[in-house]
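Possible regression after last week's pipeline update?

I re-ran a chain I had predicted before the update to compare outputs. Posting the input and the new output here so someone can diff against the archived version. Not blocking, just want to make sure nothing changed silently.
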Amino acid sequence: MEEAIKQIGERLKGLRESLDISVQEMAETCGITEEKYLKMERGESDLSVSKLYKVSSRYGIALDILMFGEEPHMSAYFLTRNGKGVSVERVKAYKYQSLASGFRGRRAAPFLVTVEPKPAGEPVEMDIHPGQEFDIVWTGRMELRLGDKMFVLAPGDSIYFDASQPHCMRALDNMTLKFLAIIL
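New output (post-update):
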């Protein structure tokens, strides 16, 4: 897990340096302080997919390249076998598995997301990113906070929302949550 976060940080730094982007501009793109951004580059801070999505959108680089270091190659189809998608754990309790990492020119980024339960009362950071998001719960139950609203989703429940609204997800019932997230 730590190695994957360090590699993502190295790719962020490489992108910033190759495009001659200042730390200040990258931090503003991510919506965080320069200090927090530099911690991301060094692999010392939690990385959110939404922040990486903001960078990929602004600078025209595939999200997969930032997350996994791989350029998509397929243009007709891309098959992901069960449990075989490229994955990254941002923190111990949150894992993203890309379901279309090898498809070039995607219009959406589908992920199987696994969220481990956290102790009750532990804060969950709200996030925002451009575009829209569709989530459907596979296993477990999800608490979804969207702006000032809170929803509980059970297996088979889905939600489609404007991802520029602050949002976060939490596993409920002290059980692992798995859901499909499609970022458009």
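Follow-up from reviewer: compared with the archived run. The helical segments are 2-18, 23-30, 34-41, 49-59, 63-68. Marking as no regression found.
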